[in-house]
Amino acid sequence: MMDEAALSAFLLRDFAQVAQDFRLERSDAAGLSLRLRVGDQHLRPGGTVSGPSIFALADVAMYLAILARIGPVALAVTTNCSVDFLRKPEAGRDLLAEARLLKLGRRLAVGDVMVFSEGGTEPVARASLTYSIPPRT
Amino acid sequence: MMDEAALSAFLLRDFAQVAQDFRLERSDAAGLSLRLRVGDQHLRPGGTVSGPSIFALADVAMYLAILARIGPVALAVTTNCSVDFLRKPEAGRDLLAEARLLKLGRRLAVGDVMVFSEGGTEPVARASLTYSIPPRT
Amino acid sequence: MMDEAALSAFLLRDFAQVAQDFRLERSDAAGLSLRLRVGDQHLRPGGTVSGPSIFALADVAMYLAILARIGPVALAVTTNCSVDFLRKPEAGRDLLAEARLLKLGRRLAVGDVMVFSEGGTEPVARASLTYSIPPRT
Amino acid sequence: MMDEAALSAFLLRDFAQVAQDFRLERSDAAGLSLRLRVGDQHLRPGGTVSGPSIFALADVAMYLAILARIGPVALAVTTNCSVDFLRKPEAGRDLLAEARLLKLGRRLAVGDVMVFSEGGTEPVARASLTYSIPPRT
Hints:
Four copies of one chain form a homotetramer.
Chain A (H helix, E strand, L loop, with lengths): L3 H11 L7 E7 L2 E6 L14 H20 L6 E9 L9 E10 L3 E10 L7 E8 L5
Antiparallel strand pairs in A: 1-2, 2-4, 3-6, 4-5, 5-6
């Protein structure tokens, strides 16, 4: 329904406040990859990326993954998000979220997200998210 | 171990970047209440408080509730956070988080948090959080 | 919609296979209390109540708490269950689940459950559950 | 640490009560596959596999995946399990759980599990689990 250009434009328009923090890296049938351009505003003392920043990355990635499939008319709402924080992100690196949809039902969409430090092979965090999808007409 | 004044001072010193967003309302044996002074930086289009802001509120509230019991030497790390988003927060109101510890073990602390719009009786969100506690000497 | 007698009858009829494991202790506006009559079939080696038995207790308790409010016509389906296992249950004691509804929407019901060993004051487990509610006509 | 034969023997000895319900299909560096031989005792009215049965499958699969890496001396304990129920399992089919470890730390192990109806390509359930690992000497 929405290709990479359409998703990037949507991000810029509807998430204007934080759009510059993110960059869509890829969107295809297998899922979606979103970059968090890590800046000072995302860091906790000690240089770790904060939990809320990782949460926001996972949430935006999954939101875009749903829009890619159902189009921009939807106003999906996050109903649950569960995050496992696995490892300290590497200092000075961006984070990459790999999101995939596990279910796209009429009322609920469920997916999971793995978050990596750029260049890293072991996940920094894992998240699963559920969205409520408004009735489609 | 830490009373309300000590917790507020800790918040100001160790969470300097976001300390002005929060205010400790209460800390006692039953748990802890933390206010999010909702500002433009916490809002999504439409005036809703963003998911990451609610996540941050729950996370800081539980972190302080643990410190209240084990003191400021600890460097507890969030290992899991699961949030249910229940209702849209009321526009123009602060959020209040009520945190309680359910377990304070030697290695793990677990608690839950209910988030309300100020003056509201039905929860906006519910969160449960697990922290890994470093070995105490 | 359904009082304690109606809920107990429903349990016996619709959960015939496991109904004898449970007993409804209370159902009122504040929530619902359900007992797991702990038997050998619920135990792991060492005498601990198994995780699946605790899961089942929480799931049935919340299911009944929803039915108490919307009546027996519904076929609510569990969509998410997150359980924190906090302490080893005390040997030779039944478990009591205290369930409360946090949200009863048109499409989703969300609640949490605290599980105690009978006579104990510290929770053995905490669970949150989400159910999808079929359209009501 | 433990190969497929050792894991199957462990299952038979330490989970004697339920061992006949499960069969280890595969264990290698990528993870572990465990079968639930679905029988009447796992079914809810209507022929669906019950939530507790799916929970048990995910829990045993992840437990074995940890043992495969740290050996049989460990007494790992489940501290959290979060399950998303995605689709109704197909009637008359076994379930297969694909478990992978995302982190094996000194104190915590975290992994996720995808559950499929045999022959199906879309997941019936997704679970993430955390285990506390006892100090190794």
